[in-house]
């Protein structure tokens, strides 16, 4: 979803707990890179805790900044 703030981290955690997941792709358009990095950090931690690859779509710069898989 475009809104990855608010309740999305809890929804992601629940989804990853529902069965095997190989990867999560962060793909959000029209958000400032600093804001996107702030929003992505908790999602990346959730993925790491679940041993799910965290992939950033369309931005090598953001992928490197976050240390994405």
Characteristics of this structure?
69 residues, mainly alpha, two-stranded parallel ribbon, globular
What does this structure look like?
Helix 1 runs parallel beside helix 2. With 69 residues, the chain is mainly α. Helices cover 48% and strands 12% of the residues. The model has no long low-confidence stretch (mean pLDDT 91). It is globular and about 30 Å long. The protein has a two-stranded parallel ribbon with strand order 1-2.
Can you give the mean pLDDT? 91
Structural class determined from secondary elements: mainly alpha
Number of separate strands: 2
Rg calc: 11 Å
Outline the biggest β-sheet: 2 strands, parallel
Proportion of beta-strand residues: 5-15%
Draw up the topology in text.
Layout: H1 8-16, E1 23-26, H2 33-49, E2 53-56, H3 60-66
Parallel strand pairs: 1-2
Helix pairs in contact: 1-2
Task: Give a summary of the structure in a few sentences.
The protein is built from three helices and two strands; from the N terminus they run H-E-H-E-H. The chain is mainly alpha-helical and 69 residues long.
